[in-house]
Amino acid sequence: MLEGIVRDSMTKQATKTLRRDGYLIANIYGKGLENISTAFKNNEFIKFLRNKETIAFDVTVAGTVYKVVVQEYQKCPLTSTLLHVDLMVAQPGVRASYKIPVATTGIAKGIKNKGLLMIHTKRVPVKCTIEDLPENITIDVTDLDTGDNILIRDLTLADSVECFLDTRVPVVGIIKAK
Q1: For a FRET experiment, which of 48, 96, 108, 118 has its CA 20 to 30 Å from that of 32?
Q2: Keywords, A to Z (predicted)?
């Protein structure tokens, strides 16, 4: 389980000191909950996120366990190191916004015809409860040929999962290689 510390001071100098010591600045928030300003060891946080198997995961801050989901993060434009992450508490029975990753299976016909597989939308924004949240959206691309796309309207989501994007937005497609 990932462990974090509570940040006492919110000043710019305190934040710089934490980052220099190898900490990642984070905020934990949720509906009806008070915001918690925390910090996690940067390397531990990255290792934990790479090895996690579900969208929601547990973190411990000041002896309290929270089941959280990464909502947003900020990276340094020069070094691509993580600077800040927003973690939303996944409360049971509460409808909230989540971003579900897209995964593809199979080898498309268009790839054999010198095409390239393009994932246009890497994460699909949906609104649902944590109990109904799928781990990923798996798309079979074996029937796609050059110029074909799979749109949002072609995805099969549960009735309780509502997608925000326009139905004409492409998720996956095969483009012709030059």
Answers
A1: 48
A2: Ribonucleoprotein, Ribosomal protein, RNA-binding, rRNA-binding
- For domain 97-176, give its CATH number from 3.90.180.10, 3.90.550.10, 2.170.120.20, 1.10.10.10: 2.170.120.20
Q: Give the model confidence (pLDDT) of 75-118 as tens digits.
A: 989 988 888 999 999 988 889 888 889 999 988 888 888 889 89
Cα 44 to Cα 4, 71, 170, distances in angstroms? 10, 19, 35
Amino acid, single-letter form, for residue 143 = D
From the candidate CATH numbers 3.40.50.720, 2.40.240.10, 2.30.110.10, 3.20.20.60, the one assigned to the domain spanning 2-91 = 2.40.240.10
Residue 22, both tokens? 């190898």
Instruction: Give the residue from 175, 170, 17, 49 showing the smallest Cα distance to 111.
Output: 175
pTM to 2 decimal places: 0.80
